[in-house]
Amino acid sequence: MTEPSRVEPVTALFKSRLSVVNLGLASFADNLAAIGAEVAQVDWRPPAGGDAVALDALDRIANGGTDVDAANKKAVEILLAAKPTLIDIGIAGEVIPGMTPTTVLHSGPPVTWERMCGPMKGGVIGGLIYEGLAKDRAEAEALAGSGRISFEPCHAHGAVGPMAGIVTAKMPVWIFENAAFGNRAYATVNEGLGKVLRYGAFSDEVIARLRWIETELYPVMKKALKLHGPIDMKSVIAQALQMGDEGHNRNRAATSLIIREIAPILVQLGEPVERIVRILNFLNANDHFFLNLSMPSCKCALDAARGVKGSSMIVAMARNGTDFGIQIAGLGDRWFTGPASMVEGLYLPGYSAANAAPDIGDSVITETAGIGGFCMAAAPAIVKFVGGSPQDAIAYTTRMYEITLAENAAYQIPALDFRGSPTGIDVRKVVETGILPVVNTGIAHKEPGVGMVGAGLVKPPRNCFRDAVLAFAEAYGAAPASSRSDP
């Protein structure tokens, strides 16, 4: 009989060079690497973070009678086929459905005057003074709290507004039409950066600028658009992405493209030279001018996909400085909300996080449509505005492919070998992977009347995505296991 082979003690394992695959917690991999081990880190986490209720909802959706994947294919195809087109400029009270002289539209989900954050209250105050409904802050605050003003979300009227998002009846608004499906969207004219209404400022200079936009810029732009004809915004955005923009916080290239498009028309209108010079100087000094064109472009593209039965694609994300909310294609106009987060970013001199208001604005419609933060890889210079590094910008974009339904071949990203932008956020994937949509944004001062204090990145609240999945399971999923009868 041969002698059994000698079994090496387990301690021998630690005398040899280790090659380890580490799942999940990265600190384990870091510790092994520190002692010279070869480590491959796998970013794994339990689906839905191990949340049993969310997992049950996802399972019910998968086993319900609705083909959600087919519905999502239809919804994202509608989004990809959209042709956002600038067709005109008009006065809000005359062109936005449902507007009245006492209607004030705001960004984000519905919110009352009492719950509004500082910059939104500042925007309302400025809007009421601009409309001539109040002569000063005290009168405006009294009127706002009286119940005589109707506060409604921009999204409920086919509109979008950056930051506070205030739209009142006399304000000029861009008119967009989705040439592929016929639906329209609206947005005000961008005022510039700093002390502006959308950041909650309402000083005399802010009101004077708004009146200039109404009395001088608006009539000239209306004549110019009539002479020029419709402008294809999908083409402009596509070009801008090739030139270093991302369509949300970096719009220098796109604004330049619009100036090139409109300047030859302006000089043909027969307007006084001084007026044309003022308008061109205003456009040239405001790199963010295009933001109020990219937002309604995205809005009318996404709105065409609303109402696709059984689709879990997100058609709106928005913030009012108090709540962050989302809407789902297959769940109508219902908002799913969570508390607005604080933005992590860079501040203007003299300001810090202590001065900041929570996340605010409808401009996250750009991310919802697949540009903005989702295209940060196309705009490495954006990190100088919101923080981080060019490598971070590429990583943010790459991660968004994991929660989206398609790639937009029209919006290509040079740094990713001209890969199409990640497009069509599937709320199921957000909950299952735990990956939140990346959003870059401006930062408003928390007090009314101050204005912009910085810009950065923000993480949406997780609960609104989870709540949407639970509601989607109720609408389209199989019955809960506890209520199913035995066969």
Give keywords.
alpha+beta; v583 fold; Enterococcus faecalis V583 fold; 3 domains; 4-stranded antiparallel β-sheet; 36% helix
Question: How would you explain this protein's 3D organization?
Answer:
The chain is of the alpha+beta class and 487 residues long. It has three domains: 1-44, no CATH class; 68-79 and 306-481, Alpha-Beta Complex (v583 fold), CATH 3.90.1700; 84-295, Alpha-Beta Complex (Enterococcus faecalis V583 fold), CATH 3.90.1710.10. The chain contains 16 helices and 17 strands. Helix 2 runs parallel beside helix 16 (462-476) and helix 15 (427-433) packs across helix 16. The N and C termini lie far apart (60 Å). The mean pLDDT is 93.
Lay out the secondary structure:
Layout: E1 19-23, H1 26-34, E2 38-42, H2 52-62, H3 68-81, E3 84-91, H4 92-95, E4 103-106, H5 118-131, H6 137-144, E5 150-153, E6 172-178, E7 184-188, H7 204-228, E8 231-232, H8 233-242, H9 252-266, H10 273-284, H11 291-303, E9 314-320, E10 323-328, E11 336-339, E12 344-347, E13 360-361, H12 365-368, H13 383-386, H14 390-400, E14 404-413, E15 419-425, H15 427-433, E16 439-444, E17 452-458, H16 462-476
Parallel strand pairs: 1-2, 4-5
Antiparallel strand pairs: 3-6, 3-8, 6-7, 9-10, 9-13, 10-11, 12-17, 14-15, 16-17
Helix pairs in contact: 2-16, 5-6, 5-7, 8-9, 9-10, 15-16
